[in-house]
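Continuing from the previous page of notes. For each protein in this section, the sequence appears first, followed by its structure tokens. Read the first protein now.
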Amino acid sequence: MYVILVYDINEKRVGKMLKLCRRYLNWIQNSVFEGEITEVKLKELVIKSKDIMELREDSVIIFKSREQRWLEKEVVGVERSGLEQFL
């Protein structure tokens, strides 16, 4: 499945959440990530993010789609991070 993940985390925990999300998805802008992920990996990501979060203070929003092609993406201005991966 294709997901877009957005988080709003207290600055004390942002670094940990950033590192976690980068292991599963592509960083596209500040607290925004996107990419293909399996159901199992997504559940793993959610469980690990709950360990980092203060649930009364922080939030994570996940938008899901079967495939990326069902979403139209338009970038106005500078795209912060291209999806090119260097090996």
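Done with the first. The second protein uses the same format. Note its length before scrolling.
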Amino acid sequence: MSYRRLSRNSGARKAMIKSLLAAFFTHERIETTEARAKELRKFAEKMITLAKRGDLHARRQAIAQIADVGVVHKLFEEISDKYKERNSGYTRIVKLSPRRGDGAPMVLIELV
């Protein structure tokens, strides 16, 4: 299997990834569980690569994934400029203490 199910059906999982992507590119760092962060990393790396390409088709593909035009604009105008010289590895995952309620491993995922 090439993806994590995250205890959700496909529609809920896609919606969660879209909202995580929007929050991640808005704040440039978010705190979430380790499984969600590892899944988010795959999509975020692809979105930054699309932003570096910069053409209209790439922008429309990003809008289909993120579904917030303001965030896509920030991604294409600001974030992509920082990574012109870098080929991959745009994100960093830092482990934090477990969550108090259920002991889930928490991490901080941020742009490098």
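What the second structure shows: Helices lie at 10-27, 34-53, 56-66, 69-82. The chain has a mean pLDDT of 95. We return to this in next week's lecture.
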